[in-house]
Design goal:
The chain is of the alpha/beta class. The protein folds into two domains: 353 residues, Alkaline Phosphatase, subunit A (3-Layer(aba) Sandwich), CATH 3.40.720; 64 residues, Arylsulfatase, C-terminal domain (2-Layer Sandwich), CATH 3.30.1120. It has ten helices and 19 strands. It has a ten-stranded mixed sheet, with helices on both faces. It has a four-stranded antiparallel sheet with strand order 16-17-18-19, covered by helices on one side. Strands 12-3-15 form a three-stranded mixed sheet. Strand 16 and strand 17 form a beta hairpin. Helix 4 packs parallel to helix 6. The chain is globular and about 60 Å long. The N terminus is likely disordered.
Length: 427
C-alpha cells in the first residue's frame, strides 16, 4: 500500500550488532529482553530473515537494496580501510529525502566508510549523525586503536557515558523534535558486539558479584584476535564473558524500549513503522549463542546469516504473528520505497515484501548469502552441501547425494549469479 493522500509514516530501523539467535527472551527465557518480547507480541516476528554473515556488507545492502558483492563490499570497512559505500549509490536516506522526509537521522555505528568526508553519513542522505564510524569501540571511553571515535555530525564529540545510553538519548531527542512530520531514524546500536563491557545494573541481573574477580578476558575471552590488540579498559567486565554479553543484550533491549516509549509519548505509534534486526548472527567466540541454528558470525550457516528480526506498524503489521517467508536485508529498501511513495532510479536486488506482512505469499526466489551459499524457500546450498530448510533448519543432514538433481540446480543458479555479477568468491 503506497501512501499518497494520507500522511506518510515515520520509519525507524533498529539494527543490533552481533545479536545471537538464542539471545533474546522470546527464544531463550534466560535472556532478559522485556521490550523486544513485548515488541514481537504486538508486531510480527520474521522467522526467516537473512543477512550477510558480517556487518558492513549487511549495512551496505540495507542502505541500497543491493547485494553487497555488487557494491564491492565483501568484508568489514574497518579502521584501516580506505573507501566505503560507493558515492554513486543512493541510500535509503537519499530515497526518503526525495519523498519529502526532511528529518533523516543516523545514530550509532556507521561502518560504511570514513577515510574520506564523502563517505560521511551527512553526505549519504542523512541530516543528522551521532555515533561512531568504526566497530568495536570501547563502550566507556569510545576509543579504538588509540583514537577517539565518537562524533556529533562532523565534529568530534567528547560526551561521556556508556555508548548505548548516549546513542539512545540522541535518537530519542531526534524523535521528539521530528514527531510533527514524517521522519526517518536509522538506529545502529553497537551492542552486543565486542568488546564485552556491560553496565553494573545489567550485570547484576545476571548474578554479578562485585566481591568476586572479574573475568580474565579482553574483547571476548579468546586469544590472538583483533580485539586483544586494542587497549580496552576493564570497566564493565562481569565475572564471566557470558554474563557480560547477556548484560549488553539487556542494555540493547532497554534502548529499543526507550525508542518505542518515545513513539508512544509523542502519540505517533499508529503512523510509525519499526523494523528491528541484527546485522549478522551472534559471534560464538564472544559468548553469543545461535542454538538451535548451526554456526555463527562469519559463516554462511544459518547461525551466521539467519537473524532475529521483527516489524511493527500498529493497525497494519501486528498481532503477534510469526512470518516464515524468505525475507532479507536487501528487501528493506524496496519495501520502504513503495510504502513511502518514493521513487528510485535503477534496479535493486530486493523485493517489496509488504504483502507478506498482510498474509500473502511471496514468489519463491534464489537468495544469495555470500561465498558458496544460496537459499530458497525450501532448499539451501552451502558449499558442496544441500539442505531442506523446511524439514531441517539446523542443517544436520546433507542431501546433495540423495537429491543430486536439486543440488545441481542450486549450484547452477549460484554459478550464474557469480558469473553475471562478477562476484569474487574467495573473500
Amino acid at each position: 500500500m503506497s501512501v499518497s493522500a494520507q500522511k506518510k509514516p515515520n520509519i525507524i530501523i533498529i539494527v543490533a550488532d552481533d545479536l545471537g539467535w538464542n539471545d533474546v527472551g522470546f527464544h531463550n527465557p534466560e535472556m532478559i529482553t522485556p521490550n523486544l518480547n513485548a515488541f514481537v507480541k504486538k508486531g510480527m516476528e520474521l522467522k526467516r530473515f537473512y543477512v550477510r554473515p558480517i556487518c558492513s556488507p549487511t549495512r551496505a545492502g540495507l542502505m541500497t537494496g543491493k547485494y553487497a558483492d555488487k557494491l564491492g563490499i565483501k568484508g568489514v570497512v574497518n579502521h584501516r580501510a580506505e573507501g566505503g559505500l560507493s558515492t554513486q549509490e543512493k541510500t535509503i536516506a537519499d530515497l526518503l529525502a526525495g519523498a519529502g522526509y526532511r528529518n533523516r537521522g543516523a545514530f550509532g555505528k556507521w561502518h560504511l566508510g570514513h577515510s574520506d568526508i564523502k563517505y560521511h553519513p551527512l553526505r549519504r542522505g542523512f541530516t543528522k549523525f551521532y555515533g561512531h564510524y568504526n566497530g568495536a569501540i570501547d563502550y566507556y571511553t569510545h576509543f579504538r586503536n588509540g583514537a577517539l571515535d565518537w562524533h556529533d555530525d562532523y565534529k568530534i564529540s567528547r560526551d561521556t557515558g556508556y555508548s548505548m545510553d548516549l546513542i539512545t538519548e540522541k535518537a530519542v531527542q531526534f524523535i521528539n523534535k521530528s514527531a510533527k512530520e514524517p521522519f526517518f531514524a536509522y538506529i545502529a546500536l553497537n551492542a552486543p558486539h565486542a568488546p564485552l563491557q556491560g553496565k553494573e545494573e545489567d550485570l547484576k541481573l545476571y548474578g554479578y558479584d562485585a566481591s568476586q574477580p572479574i573475568g580474565n578476558y579482553n574483547g571476548g575471552g579468546v586469544q590472538n584476535n583483533e580485539y586483544n590488540t586494542v587497549d580496552y579498559g576493564k570497566r564493565g567486565r562481569g565475572n564471566t564473558a557470558r554474563q557480560t554479553y547477556s548484560a549488553m543484550v539487556t542494555s540493547m533491549d532497554r534502548a529499543v524500549g526507550a525508542v518505542i516509549n518515545a513513539i508512544e509519548q509523542n502519540k505517533i505509534v499508529d503512523n510509525t513503522i519499526i523494523w528491528f534486526m541484527s546485522d549478522n548472527g551472534g559471534a560464538m567466540q564472544f559468548s553469543a549463542t545461535n542454538k538451535p541454528l548451526r554456526g555463527g558470525k562469519e559463516t554462511e550457516w544459518e547461525g551466521g546469516v539467519r537473524v532475529v528480526s521483527a516489524v511493527y506498524w500498529k493497525g497494519k503489521w501486528e498481532g503477534g504473528k510469526q512470518n516464515n517467508e524468505l525475507i532479507g536485508y536487501i528487501d528493506i529498501f524496496p519495501t520502504i520505497e513503495a510504502i513511502a511513495g518514493a521513487k528510485s532510479k535503477g534496479a535493486v536486488d530486493g523485493v517489496n515484501v509488504e504483502k507478506t506482512f498482510n498474509g500473502k505469499t511471496l514468489a519463491d526466489r534464489y537468495f544469495f548469502l555470500g561465498k558458496e551459499a544460496m537459499v530458497t524457500r525450501k532448499w539451501k546450498l552451502n558449499g558442496d552441501q544441500l539442505f531442506d530448510m523446511e524439514k531441517d533448519p539446523t542443517e544436520s543432514h546433507n542431501l546433495s547425494k540423495k537429491f543430486p538433481d536439486k543440488y545441481r540446480e542450486m549450484l547452477g543458479h549460484w554459478k550464474a549469479y557469480v558469473k553475471d555479477n562478477g562476484v569474487i568468491v574467495a573473500n
